[in-house]
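Good day; I would like, with your permission, to put a structural problem before you. What I wish to show you is a protein chain and, alongside it, a tokenised description of its three-dimensional fold. Here, with my thanks, is the record as I have it:
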Amino acid sequence: MHYSISSYVLALILLVVSHASAFPIYARDVTSARIIPLNTAGALGLLWGSIGLAVLTALIQGLVTTMASVAESSAMWTFRFRIARSEYIWWSFVSGLLGTSLVMITLSFLCGNQGEGLSVLVLCSATGVAIVRYMIPAWRSRHFIENRWLAWTGPSRTGVNIRYADVVGDEEQWLRLFKKLENERFLMFPSDEWGWSLPFNSPKGLYPDATEILHKTPQSDLGTLAAKDKIGQLGRGIYDDGLHDFKKPEGNISLLWGTNQGFRRRVSRAIGSMPLNLLMSQPVTVDNYVADGLCLAMGVLGRNKGLNPKSLVYGSEQREKKLGASEPPHKIKSKTISDALENTSTWKPRPAKVLRSYYLDTLKKQYGGISDAYVAASVELALILANASHHAIRTWFEKRMEQQDYELNREVQEYRQSLGDAGPTAEEFNAVYRASYVSMIISLNYIDYPLHGKAHSNEGLCRPDLTCMALLLMAEGAEKPKWWEKKWVKDRLHKESQGLSKDGSWMDPMAWLFGLEKWPDVGGWSV
């Protein structure tokens, strides 16, 4: 958002002050052509009040303009995104001040200060520009700006050394670790800075990066700092994605951390790789295409990759690679899948689909080093976010559905702990992770909207992670898990289907994304 409106206000002040200097207000003769009967003192009071409001508006506007400019030039994106959330309120306030000033100077003019005619015209123009050019667009953008905040400041999934597996935990545990390091200085990137704030909106939560806290914790203290809330050797917040090996001390584990663990919100450091034109309050591409979807998608993709994004499945090619097949007889072409995702979506016909090739070219430059499947998933996510309802997107972020469902992962960890050899295997845990991007796309593309109205709590809304795991294992010819007949599995599968569109239009596209010919009976594990 640009702030050139201040130039209009300053021009107005110079105009009025110079006019007053040439013809002192106190010495003016108020003409007899009065439309509103008011004495000279009252008329001049209105004029000075109008000038005072114009000066106040210019000063405050200059302050806000400077803060926004400094935040952008210094890459303080947490601060910039935070103050942008109040942009529509700010422009309403500015327009209100200018409107009040306009009313006062108009009344002064009608009381006989005929020399203020030009000032009325200039202030009227400035007020009109503030409303039409700034206030109305800010109100129209407020939902996107809120969703941008959620997209970039949500929980992050980070790789940390396996020796910290039982040290991490809930908010209380992280506070315990932080207090042990009160005298330490933590590395802060410009994008981490919360910035200036008033007492009522001061930041809450731990400010360092979770990895910084762990790296500064003395190795000799790890044995005494183990978390109470853990399953086996994994503390709360650690995904079991089937990749960790405690026999390899230099291996990594996947940590989920954010506000639920007591950290304050801040923009992901992945923002450092973003082009500046995508970070504006009304983002556009270099070719002037609207880029709301790209901005939101890249915020998500900067936080949820996990330890091995190259293994993430999206499309039938993964099954071919796994099985060593060159051309399965029922291979589903990528165009067929994308057409189905567009035409059966909750947001059909998804007008942004015409930008698919453009988004593909843009995102391949950004993520092409990971895999073609990752790029394809990122394109689909950006296109969906460009067309989905603001309310649905916000609900999706608030339910943290952009991340693999940690509570499900932890629940399955508990079952493994209690069932032993009859519980989930490392391959099954890994299948949930590898299928997580398909689950993410399906959960938003087919979300059950309008969610029973805006007042609906959406408590039952969840990602289809378990369903996607089953489809991937079926596509790869794996045996049915030993624990698949448990009641909690049936309950979870039912809950997952309830969060998606009731017409079942999501079933075949979901199956095709794993290379299956059609939707199988997931509950009975028959293809």
